[in-house]
Design a protein that fits this description.
alpha+beta, four-stranded antiparallel β-sheet, 5 helices, 21% strand, elongated
């Protein structure tokens, strides 16, 4: 387990470093290219302003993604996720402990060599915004690598799968019998181990809900407000250094 964690950390840092180089190359080339086009189009003010605006957008986008990659390298994956990712309100400390315990439980099915266990953890909504959309005994339906599984209830459900990345699609049948909106995800499953995916159906039948690997569920989503704030601070710091040096 420690070797896997160390390998994952190095992959994270390596990907972030590659991302920094890619951001500079791609967004830098775009910004410079648009500004060159703006200069060449100076005789046509409207076109020139359009290319200038596109160059500025490319520069701002590049600054955002460069900040993301830079902070990921400097802070490391754990601190970076703690500072810039936000968990959903449903993930209370008790809910987190319950999800972790569900993943840690022993597999309920045998697995062959080269296989792992995909554990589907469905979370039943506490209420339905449209109570007529689903039957009272509605149960999730999950397709794993093209094979459909009709879950017997809302308890965790194990499926033996080949080790690697597994494609999962989940939905709730509507009262009419037709499938509801589908949520999909790619879930990594290691040989001889359990990889969990959390399926959270939406309370509203017009929305698909989410199917997220447990690691992503516990990490949360990137806070754009925090990242834009960090980007502004980094740009401001670079500007102040440039003023001091100049």
């Amino acid at each position: 387990m420690e070797g896997d964690a160390a390998g994952s950390r190095w992959r994270f840092l390596g990907g972030s470093l590659v991302g920094m180089v890619g951001v500079v190359a791609v967004f830098g080339a775009l910004a410079i290219g648009f500004w060159v086009l703006a200069d060449l189009s100076s005789d046509i003010p409207l076109v020139g302003r359009l290319f200038d605006m596109l160059g500025r957008l490319a520069a701002v986008g590049g600054a955002f993604f460069f900040t993301y990659c830079l902070l990921a390298v400097v802070l490391g994956p754990d601190l970076f996720e703690k500072l810039f990712f936000v968990r959903g309100k449903a993930l209370t400390p008790g809910a987190i402990r319950e999800l972790v315990a569900m993943e840690a439980a022993s597999a309920t099915i045998p697995v062959a060599s080269g296989q792992g266990v995909l554990r589907i953890i469905p979370i039943k909504p506490q209420w339905w915004l449209d109570p007529n959309a689903h039957a009272d005994d509605t149960k999730p339906v999950v397709v794993v690598e093209g094979i459909e599984h009709r879950l017997p209830g809302w308890d965790p459900y194990d499926v033996a799968v080949p080790a690697g990345t597994v494609e999962v699609v989940a939905w709730l049948p509507l009262r009419s019998g037709i499938p509801g909106r589908r949520a999909g995800s790619s879930v990594p499953v290691s040989e001889g181990r359990v990889g969990a995916v959390v399926f959270r159906p939406s309370s509203l039948p017009e929305l698909p809900g989410t199917a997220t690997p447990l690691a992503g569920e516990l990490r949360g989503d990137l806070s754009s407000h925090r990242m834009w704030g960090a980007t502004a601070l980094l740009v401001g710091l670079v500007f102040l250094v440039w003023l001091a040096v100049g």
